[in-house]
Each structure stands twice: as C-alpha cells, then as structure tokens.
Specification:
By secondary structure, this protein is α/β, with parallel strands linked by helices. The chain has helices at about 5-10, 15-40, 85-90, 95-105, 155-160, 170-180, 200-210, 230-235, 250-255, 260-280, 300-310, 330-335; strands spanning about 45, 60, 65, 75-80, 120, 135-140, 150, 185-190, 215-220, 240-245, 255-260, 285-290, 315-320, 345, 350. About 35% of the residues lie in helices and about 15% in strands. The chain has an 11-stranded mixed β-sheet. The protein has a two-stranded antiparallel ribbon with strand order 1-5. Strands 7-11 form a two-stranded antiparallel ribbon. Helix 11 links the parallel strand 12 and strand 13 (about 315-320).
C-alpha cells in the first residue's frame, strides 16, 4: 500500500514509522468492514453525522469542519465555515456522500474504521435521513500548534493542511456564538494542538464561558504551559481539565511525549489544584489522564502514580489503554491485570479521589 499524505508529512522517523503501520491497519480494516457488510447484509451509519454524538464533530483552527477528531490529513473535511453556514456544511454534499457510502456498506474514509461513532445497522435496515444538527457536543480547536511531539499524534500532517494554525479571538467568539445557537451541552476545547499555547487563551476561556454559561467545557492539555496565575484564573471558567501526563518521571513520559516534561506538568497540576482550592471552588474538575504503555504500567508505578495524585489533590486519575503506538500496547491491561483498579469507564479504568464529582466527570 502506498504511503499516505499523513505519514509523509511527519518528520520524526519513529512517529512516521508508527503512522505508516497505522495507515496499513486502517486500509486493511476498511476492506474487512466492507466485506463484512456484503456478507452479512448489515450496512453502517455514523452517529456523528446523525447529529447524536457528543464528540467527533470538530471545528478546526482554520474554521474547516471535520467529521472526526482524528482528521490528520483533511480527508474528513465536510466544509468551511468561512464559505458556508454550519447548517450548509452539516447537511451539505460531502457529509451526505459520507452517509450514503456508509449506507451502502462502504467506508468513506479510512478513519471511520477506528471511530467509536461508526455503527452497524440491523440487517436490511436503512439509516434515517439526518434531520437534526449536533447538540450533545463538539470539539473546538483553538490551535493546531503544540509544544510537544507525541509518538501517537500525527499533528504535523494536520498542521500542513490547516490554512490557519491558530484561531483569531474574533473567530473564536463567532464559534462560541455558534455553540450557543446549537445549544451545545458539551464543548471539548481541544483537538490536535495545545490549547494553552494560544496567545489569547486568557481571553478565550472567559469568552467561551460567557456565551455558553450552561455548557460543560473540557480542556485537554499537556500541562506545561498552564504555568501562570493569569492562565489559572482563565482556567477557572472550565468544567474539567484533563492533564495528559503518561508516567511518573521525565524518562518514562518522554518515551511517548518528546520535548515534554513530567516535572513541569506535575507542578502545573499541583499549582492548579492549589489555586482553585484557595478560592473555595470545586470546579474545574482536575483529572490526571495517564495513557497506559508497556513501559509505564508496572503495578508499583501505577500505585505510586495514585499516591502522587492524592498528594497534589487532583480529583481523578484515569488509566487509558491505547494501541498507538502499536509497539507500546499495555499487555498487563489487555490481560485483565487492572480489572480491580478503581472503576471501569469509557476511558479504561479510573480512580476517583473526590467522590462528589463522580457523576459530573463522565
């Protein structure tokens, strides 16, 4: 199979090799799912394109709209909000072609094969025509630029297809208005860049909250740049902050997140918890998001991470299995050795350190 634009755009050899393998896996899965549809007669539909997903529909930093959160090469672009309204994009020809392909048992783009919103229809059934706009949630990407380089992220490919790398504050205000008009219940202020790298982040978060006072707003960050009181004050407008910190030392974390810093990220979690608690606030919920790999999943390491999370008073530490990079798979998790750790969730396993926020953090 030919190398895709995604993997060609990546400079780091280790990351590029991982994504070449990933490209091959998606290509193989596409053909398998199409064959499966022919054999069983059960075709597909997309929950996101039906307007029922709380994740995946993404407004990118250049105001293009993608159908999924992993649109590294632009193949999932549905349209451009600088040229058309959201309604015209969501019900437009590209989105409709994707729906039609799925209804025929075809994969519109390879990314569909690894998307949680790909659903199978009962035998002989046809999907209902898309009749409503998304309302449960969407992703809003303020920047595609990042200060770290993760093996499992092909962000370089996405950056190469974005016309604008960082969303200007005025356009962000327009997207906040759009979210309010759609009645978005959840706004994921994240995608393929580091949100706190935006030079106007201290204005963005209060603006987003003022226009969407009832929305649950989540940010995912590597934490390194959440490093000033001004940013912490802005972050108080959030409902939830996920800190992506994958290990308990610089050496452990840098195997996946190059140019990262465990010490800086850990201190950012500590400082944010202290800043919030000093004001007598319960929000935002602070979560240590810990991707599991075979180099950071030893039981002693996991136990120490939980103790460290308690020490700095974050609210949750969650352990996420991943197959990317393929050579980093946590076999301990796959073999069920973590089945007694915390509670099971859509993330994997999570240890809730503040029971009063268990329902809100879902």
């Amino acid at each position: 199979m030919a190398t895709t634009p995604t993997s060609r755009a990546i400079k780091n050899p280790k990351t590029r090799f991982n994504w070449r393998v990933s490209d091959c896996v998606r290509w193989t899965m596409s053909h398998w799912l199409e064959l499966k549809a022919k054999i069983t007669g059960r075709k597909y539909y997309c929950n996101a394109l039906a307007g029922e997903s709380e994740y995946n529909i993404t407004i990118n930093s250049d105001l293009t709209v993608s159908c999924n959160c992993q649109d590294y090469d632009g193949s999932g672009h549905l349209g451009d909000l600088r040229k058309n309204s959201f309604e015209e994009v969501f019900f437009g020809p590209v989105a409709q072609k994707f729906r039609d392909d799925l209804a025929k048992g075809k994969m519109p783009i390879p990314t569909c094969t690894r998307c949680g919103d790909l659903k199978r229809l009962p035998r002989g059934d046809s999907p209902q025509p898309a009749s409503r706009l998304p309302y449960r949630g969407m992703l809003l990407e303020n920047t595609v630029i990042c200060n770290v380089d993760c093996i499992g992220c092909a962000r370089e490919g996405a950056a190469n297809v974005r016309v604008g790398k960082t969303m200007p504050l005025a356009e962000l205000g327009q997207m906040a208005d759009l979210a309010a008009r759609l009645g978005m219940q959840r706004i994921f202020y994240l995608n393929l860049g580091e949100p706190f790298l935006s030079p106007t982040i201290c204005q963005e978060l209060p603006l987003l909250r003022s226009k969407n006072p009832g929305a649950y707003i989540r940010v995912s960050t590597n934490g390194i740049l959440l490093n000033t009181d001004a940013k912490r004050e802005a972050a108080l407008n959030l409902s939830d902050i996920q800190f992506s910190v994958h290990g308990i030392s610089d050496e452990m974390c840098e195997k996946y997140m190059m140019r990262g810093s465990f010490e800086k990220a850990f201190d950012a979690m500590r400082q944010m918890a202290a800043y919030r608690d000093a004001r007598g606030l319960k929000m935002p919920i602070l979560e240590w998001k810990y991707l599991l790999f075979n180099w950071n999943d030893h039981p002693k390491t996991i136990a120490r991470a939980i103790e460290m999370a308690k020490e700095i008073k974050v609210d949750i530490i969650s352990f996420w299995p991943t197959g990317n990079p393929f050579y980093g798979i946590s076999w301990r998790y796959r073999l069920g050795l973590f089945n007694n750790l915390g509670v099971k969730s859509w993330k994997g396993r999570e240890v809730i350190l503040r029971p009063d926020i268990a329902a809100a953090a879902k």
